[in-house]
Write a structure and sequence with these properties.
Elements lengths: L16 H8 L4 E5 L2 E4 H17 L7 E5 L4 H12 L3 E4 L6 H11 L3 E4 L4 H8 L8 E4 L7 H6 L14 E7 L7 E6 H14 L7 E4 L12 H7 L2 E4 L5 H10 L4 E3 L2 H8 L14 E4 L6 H9 L4 E5 L9 E2 L4 H4 L6 E2 L4 E5 L12 E6 L11 H7 L6 E9 L5 E6 L3 E4 L2 E4 H9 L4 E11 L3 E10 L7 H9 L10 E4 L13 H13 L1
Parallel strand pairs: 1-10, 3-4, 3-5, 5-6, 9-10, 11-12, 12-13, 23-24
Antiparallel strand pairs: 1-2, 7-8, 13-14, 14-15, 16-17, 17-18, 18-19, 20-21, 22-23
Helix pairs in contact: 1-2, 2-3, 4-5, 7-8, 9-10
Amino acid sequence: MALEGRSRFQSDNIGSWTALRARRDPHRTALVCGDQRTDYAELDRRVGLAAGAIREAGVKPGRRVATALKNRVEFVELLFGTARAGAIFVPLNFRLSSEEVAYALSDSGAEVVFVQADTAAAVTAALELIEGEPPRVISVDGPGAEYVGWREAALSLAPHPVRPEDPVSIVYTSGTTGPPKGAVLTHGGVLTNVENYLADWDLRRDDATLVVNPIFHVVLYILTVPLLYKGGKVVLMEDFDPAAAVRLAEAEEITVWFAIPTAWQMMLATPELEALDTTRLRFVGSGGAACPQPLMDRFAELGLDYRQGYGLSETTSSAMTMGPGDQARKPGSIGRPFFHVEARIVDDAGKVLGAGEVGEIQLRGRNVCAGYWRKPKETTDAFDPDGWFSTGDIGRADAEGFYWIVDRKKDLIISGGENISSIEVEQAVVSHPRVAEAVVIGLPHERWGETPCAVVTTVDGEELDPAVLIAHCRERIAHYKCPTVVITVEDLPKTATGKIAKLAVREQIATRVDA
């Protein structure tokens, strides 16, 4: 008898993947985290029990399960366990302010949130800001941890039937105006994303990767999920330490390695690098921010094949990539579309532009999100009737299909791999009683790629103490979003319509900083 509107294939549910892999490679190492080594048989056992526990806790299919966890085994088992139960996984960036964490919990309607000792305080503070019934909090470690006993007492659950277009995760991405938006990723989209990496990054069953950046971001879907699908080994670093990471890469015989440029700069500067057998590394990759040329030159000196990736939360990470040798002949390019991704450049009217013409980058593919959670207007604005997604990035393409980003339409600042909305920071800046007007731009930073710079005018015309404004902002937004540079000017340049001319501000400040 056919399922009513549901797939008849269990493998459509990504929560089935650990079972399928455990049948083939039960004793192969799946995850390494600290002293904990988990093979595929054990991972699948824990995923099944996690799914059963989630269902027994009253979380029905389609409901939301949140996590505030670092890179650890429980994060992975809850990702697949939530999917297996037919629920929707909501990873939280616990580094955000209490207001921002509370917003994600409220907006998603999460019924359960998993925490660890290091993140419990952040979630507790957020829960105090939530109106109505807060989600149930379950700790995975530390005093009073109930997760292990709760999971082990459950009955293992078989994969809930889903369609490829059904939601599997909500990843919150920084908005340029207003609150953040939750990109709704689907079961089928995650599979297509995996296929993209298998096709273009040539991932193998004998590969091992080390994850140093937080997997509560879409970085989860770059190498972690694809390698677990393929049967490789994923080494999770709970707290990033550059020297320890290089030692771990050597000890675990890492073959494919992705990190944001900031992390790479820190790791390549350690003395431990001398002991790393770089010949074992098939390739290294980076994304989340533009890779500085000196860093790419350093990869070349070490004889490392470098893969640059461009993607968004909305594309489940994969959008563009550079292949072997492309970087040398296409400097500055973000690459060509991944295997199952279409791309084009359009003008403001939606007309498709030709090679060399500058316009907005649009993407289409099964890996692109289904829209924004509970935001129909924003979803309609982001997608055209044919399914093309507007990235907000301004770029150009050449005749070979390589793309370059010219500017960011949304004025996002990317610092250390984190997306920072300049408008959100501006709102915090102008809330200071002495600030009359403000604009926030990204300044180049040797370590972080970019750093927020606030250019302000004051109500009294006197210079504002940068430390005072930075402290003011830190009370309102996450610390990493706060300006690190504050410049007071007499006037801000305006357009003919009276809007602040951001490009003119950038040019003005660049001259001032260089001087």
